[in-house]
Amino acid sequence: MKKVVLVTGANSGIGLALCERLLSQDAQLQLCLACRNMQRAEAARQALLVSHPQAQVTLLHLDVGNMRSVLRAAEEFKQKYNRLDYLYLNAGIMPNPRVDHKAFYKGLFSSNVVHMFATGEGLLTQEDKVTPNGLQEVFATNLFGHFLLVRELEPLLCQMDHNSLVIWTSSSNARRSAFSLDDIQHQKGREPYSSSKYASDLLSLALNRHYNNRGLYSSVICPGLVMTNLTYGILPSFFWTLIMPIMWLIRIFTNTFTLSPYNGADALFWLFMQKPESLDPMAKYHSLTSGLGNNYTQPHKMDIDENMSEALYVKLLELEDTVRKKLRGEDVDIKAKN
Length: 338
Description:
steroid biosynthesis; transmembrane; eight-stranded mixed β-sheet; SDR_fam; alpha/beta; 13 helices
């Protein structure tokens, strides 16, 4: 049976690099690129077909920050496919990043430089906004839209004849200190990206607890420090040009500077080669690159706990019910479910 793989955010960066690696490993798989910008998605599809002319690559219009789009895309996917083996939840945003330049220059010439670049801790804040659905944009795009997609695709993910795997692209910037169960959408804070990524770590654990007995498994990866459109948006392009030699030098001494999308996708690709039931639900699988340029994947225990993950899961189910009512035209307050 041919495997079916769905990748969100697949038109560039880590998502596109993953697709290339998947097709190189298994040219028979059915690959679906789920993207917001269909022009870029078609360009990505054509690029993949140049190197894999016989590949089965389809497109799905999906804006994970828009819940109507998520529901429409899920319905369209269910009409085309009768199974789903791998669901890569890779799309994500970091809007309007602000850098604390004083902390940056201080850290650049300190012993903390590797940790600073790898996690962005103490450096980055973002300005979030509210979507037309009434949700915080980063929360909706990085977490809730993907959660709703999983819920909608349950019939294809939960089947008796095979196990499926949901894979979240998280971050080393996912920190417990940025997340609060009293503010899961991060309306009151200034680190919505970090909050949303920590929430995805928690949610992955909860999905395993609720779905493993139905054949659905969930894992989390960290791509390391990768130079993508998201990364380049943090600082002016000329600045990255200036410090790239320093970053290549630092990579000799640390394995978290993967730098290229191909290297960053290593953990995503590695999970494709594993049996879902063999994976550790408490581990985040890190893409790593040695000083000599060799790629490998290594698990690290996440700073999460069962009680917090279950509490988040319950809140997301309640919010899902509220969002569905709002989409049906009922008068409900989404912010009250934060």
